[in-house]
Amino acid sequence: MAAKTTENLINNRCFWCGEDELYVHYHDQEWGKPMHDDVRLFEKICLEGFQSGLSWYTILKRRETFRRAFKGFDFKKVAKFTEADVVRLLQDEGIIRHRGKIEATINNAQRALEIVKEFGSLDTYFWQFVSPADERPKTVTRASIPASTPTSIRLSKDLKKRGWKFVGPTTCYAFMQAMGLVNDHMDGCHFR
């Protein structure tokens, strides 16, 4: 087991959450816990796409506004959004106003409906991509966590083949970490 250092842990938590109350709550209550709810899975993959090029904290602070703007990320509702919704969202200062990411979320909602039709649920689809333990380091430290893995690359390629947008390998790996498909809590973290 890696030594408990401030580089890897803060108050027996993963280094990245620091001591900010919002981040600590997210780390302790959500991050890395297995998620099987289709709407939450859809929300997270979309928010990871919005996060691309930004910090997760930027998205986390705006998550409730994103939820209101995107009808709770109910992909059945988002799939029906029109150009008028895109215009509305581009004017919403509470979210990231990036046309490509907004349009990708609507597109991905439509693609999510196709996955549900084929697999029965997003849960069944995403959980087939559980990352094998041999892909990741035995000891999880700040330096050992990869940006992507062969499994996140496969997930990204499969989603793109199905027409999804803003789902690169790094985005997919962050999604897998957050939704518990992999356990990347640091060695010594309460939640490891």
Descriptive notes:
- It is a single chain.
- The protein has 192 residues and is mainly α.
- The chain has helices at 21-29, 38-51, 56-69, 75-78, 83-90, 99-119, 122-127, 150-161, 169-178; strands at residues 9-10, 13-14.
- Strands 1-2 form a two-stranded antiparallel ribbon.
- Helix 2 packs antiparallel against helix 6 and helix 2 crosses helix 9.
- The protein starts with 8 loop residues before the first strand and ends in a 14-residue tail after the last helix.
- Which residues sit in consecutive blocks of at least 5 with pLDDT less than 50? 1-6
**How many strand elements?**
2
**Mind telling me the CATH superfamily name?**
Hypothetical protein, domain 2
CATH class: Mainly Alpha
Cα-atom Rg, whole angstroms? 17 Å
Q: Biggest β-sheet: count, sense, barrel? A: 2 strands, antiparallel
Helix-residue proportion: 40-55%
Strand/helix succession: EEHHHHHHHHH
Helical stretch tally: 9
- Numbering strands along the chain, what is their spatial order in the largest sheet? 1-2
Q: Indicate the CATH topology.
A: Endonuclease III, domain 1
Number of domains: 1
The helix-and-strand class reads mainly alpha
Give a brief outline of the structure.
The chain has 192 residues and is mostly helical. It has helices at 21-29, 38-51, 56-69, 75-78, 83-90, 99-119, 122-127, 150-161, 169-178, and strands at 9-10, 13-14.
Please give the structural blueprint.
Layout: E1 9-10, E2 13-14, H1 21-29, H2 38-51, H3 56-69, H4 75-78, H5 83-90, H6 99-119, H7 122-127, H8 150-161, H9 169-178
Antiparallel strand pairs: 1-2
Helix pairs in contact: 2-3, 2-6, 2-9, 8-9
